[in-house]
Amino acid sequence: MTTDSDRSITTSGLRRDFGPLRAVADVDLAVEGGTVFGFLGPNGAGKSTVVKMLTTILRPTAGQALVAGYDVQRQGAKVRSAIGVALQDVGLDALMTARELLALQARLFGASAAEARETAERLLVTVDLSDVDPKKRVGEYSGGMKRRLDLALALVHDPLVLFLDEPTTGLDPVSRAAIWEEVRRLNREQGITVFLTTQYLEEADRLADRVAIIDRGRIVAEGTPRELKRRVGDEVVDLQFGDDGEAERAAGVLAGVAPQRQVSGPEVRIYAAVAAEIVPEVVRRIDEAGLSLRGLSVAQPTLDDVFLRLTGRRAESADAGDQPAEAGGGSDDAVETGSRGGGGAATDAARTSDAGGRTASRRQEVQK
Amino acid sequence: MIDVVLLVRRSLLTTLRVPAAIIPSIAISVFFLFVYNSGLSSVSALPGFQGSYLGFILPVSIVSAAVSGAGLAGQALIRDIEAGYFTKVLLTPASRLSIVWGPMIASAILLVAQVVAILLLGLLLGLNPATGWLGMLAVVGYAFLWGMAFAGYAAFMALRTKNSAAAQAATFAFFPLIFLSATFVPLEYIQAGWLRAAAKVNPTTYVFDAMRALLNEGWSVRPLLVGLAVTLAFASLTGGLALWEARRATRLA
């Protein structure tokens, strides 16, 4: 029986430079065996570079990493036989069939011909591809089918740790849900440690036991999704106004009551320890300012809120075109963040992230 | 070693699934055989020419087939690198050797099949090999090694450039290897001093010599041994370079 420490991932001072660019800066991570770890960050934050180092594809410039109890730099072969890897860009041979690819992969990991055939059949059922025409070549598969096959290929040797680099990027909601279900099942039934990178906060929120957020090569937050959400306050109050201008004015009026506010079109989101304690004051001030409140609701903060606070931008801003349908509205916005004059308190350094030159249809502001 | 077998088999499978990539190679070697044999066979009437022109030109047809085979091996590697499949195999316990030599050996095996066909065609055209069936088998053996040598160069360039167009361009180096040699007439008939000098340092000359000896002369030890030594050295050099480049380009932790 494998113990949990055999399935863990630990890094200390992990660093990778590309010429003068420091892609990953002294990252310390501790992933407990048998858990699902969500590694979040915008495009180019260093997620994939960390995964490549942990999977022995890329050598670290400095620092140390242990995967499944083995040093990635000195015991690469042992690490490779303990891990399954599905990278962001699937690695498939378009000319082969799914069964051929799976059986070959199993054989390269040491299985006999009979075992390999059996593994191929079993995994095709696992990833729900067993009904596909056996003669169909992988080149004719859809994006979602390729992802599922790639996941199956990562599982042929019953790995202890599974690395999934943005496993659902670009997938439709149905394919995405299928991958999520499979990841959950693997973790629950086989105790596989899953290291999952994603730009989708919802994905991390649904799957991960713990989450780390990386931005510009540095870990900016780490904890359970619940802990991270608490950082922005336990509750959020959403206020709806008639137009964007009213929302802007309301945000100014509320500076004294709610130090953390976010304006999104005609909506203002405020963060509070206990919503009930501030709502009466909020309503009174809005009333005094002569603004008309169209709606008010209290909700839990999402990881999206955490992310926006910590990195100054939405996680998905860089490739809004690939949005998951479930992620909700507002995600295709260009995001502008910065400080506003009102409070006068020390604010986050003004930072602008440009979402591919897209014109901002709505504007979001983060204030501390 | 099982990994080599598995990856050779996989390369054969995927190569055969794109027949359009193999057909030109067959067409070119048949072209060499027919056109040059028909157009230049009077060369055999020259004083001192031993055997038939068909036996003389047939090795050119074989070497040209080896060029196409090598191109296929290089393209196969690039296809795998571009598709990300190369990385997938790198993450298995398969050796670097098997990953690089898989497509090389596969292309050499396809070359062997093609050489057998060329020889059979030659027999139909009236080839009467001086060393009989055993000699033709030896020709096939030389072809295999020569195929490996060219494929090694193509694989090296593929791994170095990782770019389809660049690797394709690199195969142009095969043209001087084929034509700066005693390609169409025996070395002693070549007038230009520079061409004779180039032919002498060109390894292809020695594989031509060995095959021609087998087809036109008989079991002449010297050209056969020199041919074998040159072919082995050339194959080891390019195969070694390809392996070295693979290790360098895919240095895992």
Describe this structure in words.
The complex is a heterodimer of chains A (about 375) and B (about 250). Chain A contains 11 helices and 17 strands. Chain A is of the alpha+beta class. Chain A has 2 domains: about 220 residues, 3-Layer(aba) Sandwich (Rossmann fold), CATH 3.40.50.300; about 100 residues, Alpha-Beta Plaits (2-Layer Sandwich). The C terminus of chain A is likely disordered. Chain B has about 250 residues and is mainly alpha-helical. Chain B has one domain. Chain B is about 80% helix and about 0% strand. In chain B, helix 1 packs across helix 5. The mean pLDDT of chain B is about 90. The chains are: A alpha+beta (about 375), B mainly alpha (about 250). The interface between A and B is medium-sized, with 35 and 24 residues.
Descriptors:
heterodimer; A: 368 residues; alpha+beta; Alpha-Beta Plaits; 5-stranded antiparallel beta sheet; 11 helices; 17 strands; elongated; disordered C terminus; B: 253 residues; mainly alpha
Concise description?
With 368 residues, chain A is an alpha+beta fold.
Coarse morphology of chain A:
elongated
Strand order of the largest sheet of chain A: 6-7-8-3-9-10
Total E-strand runs of chain B: 0
How many domains would you count in the coordinates of chain A? 2
Find the structural class of chain A using helix and strand composition.
Answer: alpha+beta
Rg of chain A computed from alpha carbons, rounded to a whole number of angstroms: 23 Å
The value of Rg of chain B in angstroms is 18 Å
Query: What is the chain-wise order of helices and strands of chain A?
Result: EEEHEEHEHHHEHEHEEHEHEEHEHEEE
Question: Could you tell me the number of beta strands of chain A?
Answer: 17
Helix content of chain B: over 70%
Mean pLDDT across all residues of chain B, rounded? 89
Number of helices of chain B: 11
**Count of individual helical segments of chain A:** 11
CATH topology of the largest domain in chain A: Rossmann fold
> Helicity of chain A, in percent?
25-40%
Return the structural class of chain B. mainly alpha
- β-sheet strand percentage of chain B: under 5%
Question: Into which percentage range does the β-strand content of chain A fall?
Answer: 25-35%
